[in-house]
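As the next step, I needed to go through one protein, both as residues and as discrete backbone shape codes, included below for the reader:
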Amino acid sequence: MLKSSGILFICFFFVLGVFAQNEKENVKKDFIIYNKLLKDKKFKASLEYVNPDFFNYFPKEELLKGMEQTIQNESLIYQLLNPVIKEIHPVFTYQDKQFTVIDYDSDFNIKLKDVDSYSKDELEAYKKYYSSVFEKSFGKENVLFNPKTNFFEIKSHNFAIASSDKGKNEWKFLQIDPNLGDVYRKIFPAAVLDKLDIIKNKK
């Protein structure tokens, strides 16, 4: 028969496990909302889910303008698909904030608007050129040309750092771009980046 201290010990870890699962569910909920706003082209609202410290280096209005110009580009059709969350890493606390990393796939389809009217030779040249461009950026194994729709179907594997003020459960996100390593080191404490182990090219 368990002693009372043993029962308390088991209950403590049970409650701790439930709490950790609830935290991950909150992260997932906000991340899905964020990506739905992006998919629905509600860019201004979506930026409310971006880590606000990022705007110290990339002003919000400039980012919003660039996002709108990309979608409004008259020569492109761009379809953002729902993200597939592969893993939400354990949530941890550092000072007065909580952090975790989301490992996810963010696939999208893209094509030129007038490609459906191309001749056979023009279509072949289009396919060859853009296959090379996308394969260089995303890897050959992640680029598929769909001959029925003329869309390039791109698979994109990403990581995002999620952060929240302790106790608030309002999560903000920042997708990891290795080319912006210096910016992330200014936004996040070194101890956090070391624990997350996402930005590999540290100085």
